[in-house]
Amino acid sequence: MSEIDDSDSEARYDRLIERAATILADNHTGLFTKPSAGQYPHQWNWDSAFIAVGLGHIDRRRAFDELRTLLRAQWANGMVPHILYPHGASNYFPTPEFWQTRGAPGGPPIETSGFTQPPLVASAVRRLYERADDEEAAAFAREVYPSLLAWHRWLHGARDPDGTGLIAIIHPWESGTDNSTRFAAPLERLGEVAAPPYSRQDQHFVKPGERPEAGDYDRFMYLIGRYRAQRWDDETVYREAPFLVQDVLFNSLVYRDERDLRVLAERLGEPVAEIDGWLAAAASAFDRRLWHESAGLYYDWDVRAGRAIEESTCAALMPLYAGVADADKAGRLVRHQLLDPGRYAPGEGSRYFLPSVSKSSPYFEPRRYWRGPIWLNINWLLISGLREYGYLEEAAAIRRDTIELVERSGFVEYYDPRDGSPCGAAGFSWSAALLIDLLMEKN
Ligand code: DGY
Predict the structure, then answer these.
(1) Which ligand 1 atom sits closest to the C-alpha of 92?
(2) Which residues are marked as active site?
(3) From atom 5 of ligand 1, which residue's Cα is the shortest distance away?
(4) The whole model's pTM is what?
(5) Are 429 and 24 in contact (CB under 8 A)?
(6) Which of 178, 158, 183 is nearest to 168 (CA)?
């Protein structure tokens, strides 16, 4: 690049960072950052971890506070919930009254949803710590470490009581990729369901064609209704959950979070044997249960049906972020999935990395929530994983696409992979935060 090009892109990037910082400021409530002002006016678990990573570059104290607010809602049993309502209810549905988690055994200190989301907080704390490596960052790591450990203990105790090495989720929303096509089969298996009465509020700010379909939403609500009738009791819920899936994405994020938790433990002088046990058990279960040699990718395992969910989505690539795939498996994922224009690579019906579902899937829908659109957090996770495995050109290509998408369509919730046009909610916090990270990190 010439000097002129360099200063050109520097000015462009500075403008993007400024716009991103404005979104994060606008969405800040004083206690936490809303994912987006209209559509998601409360605090979401994995959103806050992504947001903290971006905030770390521009306002570290706010990053710490974002995570403090999240962890203050930790349940007595160790679970860190997926939605928190620190300011009470709003017109967002499900409301706290719908979840009915108040008074649940081992339950929350404030109003929250009844289950969790992929853990990324140890990873975020490690980044914040290593970026600064000063006394304040060390003190923050020391402050939150016990909560992070308790959350992972809860995951293994409540969601893998049989010691398989893999965590099972009880609801598609726990995966963070709420409406993914990989949950279509286990949801269809529920058949006709009787959901408790409810009134959907998610189609005021986002077009219905970009949100989940009515039948799926019914099943989401039906599952919540079942678990709340069991008063969110871990043992009963796990034993009777009609939806129980060992999700590749969830387990990849758990694995990476535990790798990062282990680094924190070492730096803080805490014991690591328990974490090593989790990592070893998960690594062998990824190979044994989730990897499919003939297909050359990882599939979710439907615990209730006792079989793999043979659907290729962005989840299949997340073991690259985890660092749990050996070099051979990583190479197959990159060559035969990521770089195949019939599946994930640009060409054959898409222009940008990375559709959230393989274009070859019969369920692929380029504008519907988690059924095909591009998400910035998935691109960011993948870039990080590819770099670790040494796929630097592929990581750089996804980074370029990600920046171009934002320049073209702004900081929205997701993007149509055919032309990069905006979908979902506007002014989306993690898109802003993660773009800041991509532009400000040392490459
Ligand atoms: C929603 O309301 O769709 C949220 O994604 C739930 O987490």
Answers:
(1) 2
(2) 178, 413
(3) 178
(4) 0.97
(5) yes
(6) 158
